[in-house]
Design brief:
Two copies of one chain form a homodimer. By secondary structure, the first copy, chain A, is of the alpha/beta class. Chain A has helices at 2-14, 50-63, 74-82, 110-117, 136-142, 153-168, 192-204, 212-218, 278-284, and strands at 27-32, 35-41, 92-96, 121-124, 146-149, 170-179, 207-211, 234-237, 257-260, 270-275, 290-296, 298-299, 310-311, 314-320, 323-328. In chain A, the strands form two sheets. The first copy, chain A, has an eight-stranded mixed sheet. In chain A, strands 2-1-3-4-5 form a five-stranded mixed sheet, sandwiched between helices. In chain A, α5 links the parallel β4 (121-124) and β5. In chain A, α2 crosses α3 and α4 (110-117) packs parallel to α5 (136-142). β13 (310-311) of chain A pairs antiparallel with β12 of chain B, so a sheet runs across the interface.
Chain lengths: 329, 329
């Protein structure tokens, strides 16, 4: 059962993979008696962590009340939880995919919150592997909380991989949208959910890389209108510097567009998304860490596919509306 | 939590979708205190049902013993369970994706077994929709067992769809193996698990349909060597009746091979698998109920793809070794 519950937390965290940049994707489940009373994930850097969102949801379920403040405001959420009657969560266990943070960053420390709330048990998939980040487990144990570490550790490690990469250099994600028979370039995505997700991902990345040929041919906008966010800075990967400035991507306010064939910037810790087809796949293949393939439930007669030899491994599949999102590397 | 537990049972049942023909795919979970102590599915017609396999596994977990008879022998398994000390499962709940059978067929009735064993609670996703099959719920309720019906009913209904179709006419499954960029015909499947699964599916179907052009070009064997089973009967769909009898599929013992372009046999209740590429997809498109796409984690430069316009919906995805199996319709 511990594994099944942790799997729920891991699956939930995968829904926000990448979107939490520069934070890691983390999920949390709270169990009361034999019920899952909360299932949450960290959604966006600077907002409440997974544990905090789960505790708020657990409070709402147990008290049959709804909180009236912004739950994503970590300071408000911590303050609220710290002031609940002592022992409110005494019969609850929490499952977390990563050791709760013991340091105070943009948000208060989750370990000290859990120490105060004294849940029955804290189950953690993975110790925080970053130097100076760990200490949460020790802190809880010192405070007499029962802590179990290592449930679904391998799966939690895979979930954390982008975070570990973007500490050191660019994490490079190649994004592709295709039909089930592998046709691309037709604006195929069937669900508004996946379109919105593409725009959310663009919004958080440091730079969106696109090939010069695609820019000339497709004349894209590459903004974040579906998520109502700031359009990403663009690197047009091209030897040839001249582009028609009427192409929509040049018309967007508050965005930088650079035309270059220099990839040295990939050495810098960052999150880079490449959008493109066969050409960019071939050009960038040694630079790509992971692929995110949106696969739509359509078969198409569009002749445009992509040809490249590459062995992958599937990391995670989840639904986005009627489409599916395949994470692979 | 009820939904999460039932989802485990549903996912387990999907692993044997089709393989249970002519029986339905059914899954079962047993909970003791807050632990999943058994997770099983019906695997093959004529062998123990999901509930029985789960009860045997639960016995093994609770008693820390291993049974020494064939658990798939339904008569032995029922006999064993009926003779356990009264109240052995009194603290257990069982979750089942389909109402337990109340009639005695090739195997004894599961409803009467559950009536005898008096579990704490029986949770059922879906009432058996077949006339004359239901009655299990009523029987349990009369015996004073707490029964809850309707948890994850929609998902359980989808799981049951092939079974409902093959009661009335042929259930037609189109099988396809492809790379992630939609290339076919290269013998791509990366895992022995998916190859074995293909052969297990062939073994249970009533007839394997294949196009004449594929037979001439690929000279296939179409046997079940990986599952060590009897090779399926073949219908070569072709107007032209003459084939080189040296093609391996004609060399297999104990199989019928028919060459025909008459599809009237699809009106008969049965389970038909079509293997093929673009040609058969186009020819058979109005006859296909579901697709089973084995997608392997490879990108390939093989030019052979398949072009057809078709809107699908994804039903279920599961892993088979490193590959994934996508059920769609």
């Amino acid at each position: 059962m511990r594994e099944h519950i942790m799997q729920l937390a891991i699956n939930k965290a995968w829904q926000y993979q990448g979107l939490t940049y520069p934070n890691p994707a983390v999920g949390a489940v709270i169990i009361y008696q034999d019920r899952v009373i909360a299932l949450q994930a960290h959604q966006k850097a600077g907002t409440s962590h997974a544990e905090v969102l789960a505790l708020i949801e657990a409070f709402e379920t147990l008290s049959a009340q709804t909180i009236d403040f912004d739950r994503f405001d970590a300071h408000k959420a911590h303050h609220f939880l710290q002031n609940l009657p002592k022992g409110f969560f005494a019969e609850c266990s929490i499952y977390i995919t990563l050791e709760p943070c013991s340091h105070v960053g943009k948000t208060p420390s989750c370990a000290s919150l859990l120490e105060l709330l004294q849940l029955k048990k804290v189950v953690i998939a993975l110790k925080d592997p970053i130097d100076g980040h760990s200490g949460g487990i020790q802190r809880l144990q010192k405070a007499g909380v029962e802590v179990e570490v290592g449930v679904m550790q391998k799966e939690a490690q895979e979930l954390l991989e982008p975070f570990l990469i973007w500490q050191k250099r660019a994490f490079v994600l190649f994004k592709l949208a295709q039909t089930t028979n592998g046709r691309i370039g037709g604006g195929y995505l069937s669900s508004q959910e996946s379109l919105t997700h593409v725009h959310q991902m663009r919004e958080v990345c440091d730079r969106l890389v696109i090939g010069g040929a695609t820019v000339r041919h497709d004349r894209p906008t590459l903004d974040c209108r579906f998520s109502k966010g700031k359009a990403p800075n663009i690197l047009i990967y091209s030897q040839q510097k001249s582009f028609d400035q009427e192409i929509p991507l040049f018309q967007i306010q508050n965005r930088e567009v650079e035309v270059s064939s220099n990839l040295d910037f990939l050495e810098k810790p960052s999150f880079i998304i490449i959008e493109g087809g066969e050409g960019m796949l071939n050009t960038m293949q040694t630079k790509i860490d992971w692929y995110l393939t949106y696969q739509t439930p359509k078969l198409s007669t569009n002749p445009l596919g992509y040809s490249i030899n590459r062995e992958l491994s599937f990391l995670h599949v989840n639904n986005k509306g009627v489409d599916m999102m395949i994470w692979s590397k």
